[in-house]
Amino acid sequence: MAVIELVDGGKQAMKTTWIILRLSLLSLLFSFPAPAQTASTGALTGEITDFNGAVVGGVQVTTINEATGEKRDVVSQENGIYVVALLLPGSYRLEFTKRGFKSSVKAGLQINVTETKRLDVQLEVGSVEEKVVVVSESELLQTESPALGNVTNHESVVNLPLVTRNYTQIVTLSPGISAGVTNAAALGRGSSGESQGSFRVHGASGADNNFQMNGVGINDLQASGFLSGGVAVPNPDAIQEFKVQTGLYDASYGRNAGAVVDVVTRSGGNNFHGTVFEFLRNDAERHTQAESIRVHAWRTNQERQALVLRLVSGHAPDQWRRRWRDQQLLLTGVHR
Known about the structure:
Helices cover 12% and strands 33% of the residues. It has three helices and 19 strands. The protein has three domains: 42-134, Immunoglobulin-like (Sandwich), CATH 2.60.40.1120; 146-266, TonB-dependent receptor, plug domain (Ferric Hydroxamate Uptake Protein, Chain A, domain 1), CATH 2.170.130; 268-336, no CATH class. It has 336 residues and is mainly beta. The strands form five sheets. Strands 3-2-5-6-9 form a five-stranded mixed sheet, with no helix packed on it. The N and C termini lie far apart (81 Å).
């Protein structure tokens, strides 16, 4: 009888041990923090301390998008750490407030896609109505991730020469990328976007590149050149920025062993603004060359005009497009 009770007790102890082990594994799994940024957003983190270097918890951190006025509020933890996740790329104004301390304000903080910027703040003792405005500060570095890569902003996209209006021609601005010379006589958007970009990163195959736009995959899975069309290539004026990650990026971006190209398109703001341009390619503008090597495509397929007018006021985009035989009219309006 005693032997039976001993065996039953051993089974019960073993069962209890397995339950505890499983619960421990589950708690360990869910204890890992969720990614603060995604393929279409960035994030901000930092530590808040007082004048003596002691951490300050319970500080209200308000982030304000300077283009749209959108506000996000978080509270710093007891260890002084704060995290503002899933921020759309753009310029932000930050306000740090807590009773017993002067408010601290930082404006013009740039958040980039896929990056987590770090901003440490030191609060001064005083009334919360008093404000300390940070006017100038060294540029924030991306120190929260070992990922290698480079961000190309809107100004670079629209001002650098793009012979076929294709942003993939300037991905080589990031180190570690090799690509062939762009074919200036290619039709449409050229050959740069075909077969996953037609460029190589650290010796990997060009088919291993991964393209995402606003967090959605836009890969050319067939990868058969002009037959499958290549990756999606938006109008350069519609691109806010793009980042090419070339190595050490985390598994959330992983698909293949090549580069990860994350494109973010422009969104609306609270102010009206617009651009007007004309993009014309005509054989009359070419250098004189022999009749035997004249490219007929320059006269018939590459001659076009484009007019873009963008009126922005709010957040929801509406797009209209009209195509004519010799020119293209693209109107992009954003309203409330």
